[in-house]
Amino acid sequence: MSSRKQLIVSHAPFWHNGSGVPERSYHFLLAALPAALMGLATFGAPALAVLSLSVASAIGWEVAFNYVSKRPVTVADGNAAVIGLLFAMVMPATTPWWLVLLGTLLAIVVGKQIFGGIGANPFHPVALAWAILFVSYRPFFDFDGMLVNYNFDFPAAYPIAALKAFGPEAVAELPLLDLLLGRQTGGIGATCGLAIIAGGVYLILRGFIRWEIALSFIGGIFFTALLFHIGDPTRYASPWFHLLTGYTLIGAFFLAPEDSSSPVNFAAMLIYGALMGFMVILIRNIGAFADGVILAILVGNTINPLVDKIRPKALGKVT
Amino acid sequence: MTSKRQLLIAYGLAIHLLLIAIICYAAFPQASPETPIRLMYHTAAGKVLFDHDTHTSATGYGNACADCHHHPSDEEEALIACGDCHQTPPEGEDFPESCLDCHDADEIEGSEVVGRGDAFHGQCIQCHHEFEAGPEDCSGCHVL
User: Fold this and answer.
1) pTM assigned to the model
2) CA A127, CA A64: separation in Å to the nearest integer?
3) What are the boundaries of each domain within chain B?
4) CATH 1.10.530 at A21-307, yes or no
5) Residue among A21, A52, A57 whose CB faces B24 most closely
């Protein structure tokens, strides 16, 4: 140990620095807000309906479950609101009200509460709810079909689905700057890369998410996509395209680093992020689905306890 | 530990957002515009996204309505969706039931209406070929 001062602890009474789970949730809401607002600017009132109903119903389901399970009401910690907001951000602006209610029910009850509430969920609640709905109601996750009545001033095809269907040539004309600035279709809060990155960097700087996971996830996507692209540029899109489309960035900053479903040790976090990134590109480039981000995150959540076994050696020895 | 104030914030947020959601869902229902912008066709060979607006707007290809909507040909206000007429007739019938909405049976006896798929294939491919623009192969439009 280079600095012995690190081991010195003062005696009680201690002073609480004021931080807690509610504050943490408020910061998450604040960080996600720019991307959600950009979604509102692009998709208008229907997006506001989805965002509002999602947050409100997530809080409502949590209160209801607390009463049913005879546990203390936990919505004051703000986690339900964060789940509600994130769920709406990955959904199309025209999601019907019943699907929002069902999604937040799955996220709050199946994704979180039945495992014991905040901090006990093995999967990201939003990712789990999204995946259940995705396999059950596929047409509602087809952004091309869901957004047909919008007249955008940018190409209206969902880029990552266009890539899957028509190859890199179909998306070669899309300027990367436009994709970064949110001039693309997609989930309400998943289109504007710049706003998501700003929120993510804020969370990293404030210490609410771990940079190791976010960056290794992005790195995993970038390098895997780069290898595919170098191998055959006529069949596989550039890594930059993969970074700026689909759920990549919202997955990297808001879904993958969720604390109870991700590892805590340094090497484990890097492996966890990179493996998920690798899997995202495998699904996108050779898998059956257009966008594999959330599915890859669920697989990552599953192997989380295993990768977290890679931990620093304990000091001393057991006799 | 959470405080009563934080609980009130959560309840207040939920109630206000619920009201906003109800208002937005009620006031802005997902009605299709009178002139479609894009159309998603679900077919036996996957889905096809047709960009109606790009084909008709002046900044797009500037096609006139009658270039595709050939029937009824006299009134532009009476334009109907392609699939309204181009349907496979019921077994034993010569034409789809929707024809009878406007015509008497003896008026259209002997006439033949091709199904929607054949009508689109003929119309789209012919036009794309003529103008040497747009896809002509299956995978250029159909997404499985």
Assistant:
1) 0.91
2) 22
3) 1-31, 39-143
4) no
5) A52
Question: What residue ranges do the domains of chain A occupy?
Answer: 21-307
Residue B9 C-alpha, separation from nearest chain A C-alpha, in angstroms: 7
Q: Report the complex ipTM.
A: 0.89
Q: What's the CATH class of domain B39-143?
A: alpha beta
- pLDDT, tens digit, for every residue of A16-40? 877 889 999 999 999 999 999 999 9
Contacts of B38 in chain A (CB under 8 A): 144, 148-149, 156
**Interface residue ranges in chain A relative to chain B, Cβ cutoff 8 Å:** 20-22, 44-46, 48-53, 55-57, 59-60, 73-78, 80-81, 94, 97, 142, 144-145, 148-151, 156-157, 161, 165-166
- Name the residue in chain A with its Cα closest to that of B40: A145
